[in-house]
Amino acid sequence: MPHPDPEELSLLALYEDWEDGDSREHLRVCPECAADFAALRRTVDAVRTTPDARLLEAPGPQVWAGIHCELGLSEAVQEDPLSGLEGQQAAERESLAEPVQLQGRTVSRPEQRRGATGPAARRAAAWWQRPGPWMAAAAAAVLVTAGAVWSLNQAPRPLAEADLAPLAQYSAAGSAKVVESADGARALEVRLSKDEAQGYQEVWLIASDLSRLVSLGVMNSDSGTFQLPAGLELSDYPIVDVSDEPVDGNPAHSSVSIARGTLNT
Questions:
Q1: Given its phi and psi angles, is residue 253 left (phi above 0), alpha (psi -120 to 50 degrees) or beta?
Q2: Cβ atoms of 239 and 205 closer than 8 Å
Q3: N-term to C-term CA, the chain
Q4: Residue 143: which of 13, 2, 3, 4 has the closest Cα?
């Protein structure tokens, strides 16, 4: 059963009655997707929780502008769904704070004495208690969380690393790292402190006994990323080697290595 995409997980988190039996069944058997779904549900629950109206303010337009830009939304939803609420809340707070005259005496409003539970407080119903703004805020929060979860899941996963030490007359040092992408493809990322090659740099994977080697390609600067052949076992070729190759048309290793290290497989 394929993994649900981030959009499907977001809909399942937003709407408890969303009908998708296959995805919900998948969540029961896939710990990874269940963890992602749980993170989205925590976001929805956090948005649904009614906060203390005395402590929160309506977010400024820059908040929605940032969300709109981050998610790449269309111009049709560019306007802040909470626009105008900040001024309205300020006016309502001022109205609540204004004392009233009663037979020559100045008294505070009943709403002030009772913690703002009267008609004025109901009139000042917070933006998060209104269906439209709540759904916009919840959807935006879930989309941002889903995007973060998706990004984490798509980030390359490190498999092995090596420190590269200089050989012979060279002084360049660096590092090598094997990473695996979400689709299972592997790559070797190589970095050196400088390029000291007299000809050009070539990156190799070599067997422990130096009897076999695989060329991964030419590194034209002090860093490079090289795709690993499918089926290649890192344990069979744990040594990372950067060689100095002359421009002579010979594809074999020159036997002159700039830096070398062993992957911690």
A1: beta
A2: yes
A3: 31
A4: 13
| Residue at 222: amino acid letter | D
Total Cβ atoms within 10 A of residue 34: 13
CA 152 to chain centre: 5
Q: How many residues does the chain have?
A: 265
Structural domains in the chain plus CATH codes: 6-83+126-154 (no CATH), 157-262 (2.60.40)
pTM score, whole prediction: 0.46
pLDDT by position in tens, the chain (length 265): 578 777 777 777 777 777 777 888 888 888 888 888 888 878 777 766 665 555 556 677 888 888 878 777 778 778 877 676 555 555 555 555 555 454 455 544 444 444 444 444 444 454 445 555 555 556 666 666 666 555 555 567 889 999 999 998 999 999 999 999 888 899 999 999 999 999 999 999 999 999 999 999 999 999 999 999 999 999 999 999 999 999 999 999 999 999 999 999 7
Burial (Cβ within 10 Å: 0-12, 13-18, ≥19) of residue 167: middle
What span, in angstroms and rounded, lies between the C-alpha atoms of 22 and 2?
A: 10
Pairing of strands 213-219, 200-206: antiparallel
3-state helix, strand, coil in the chain (%, to 5): 35, 25, 40
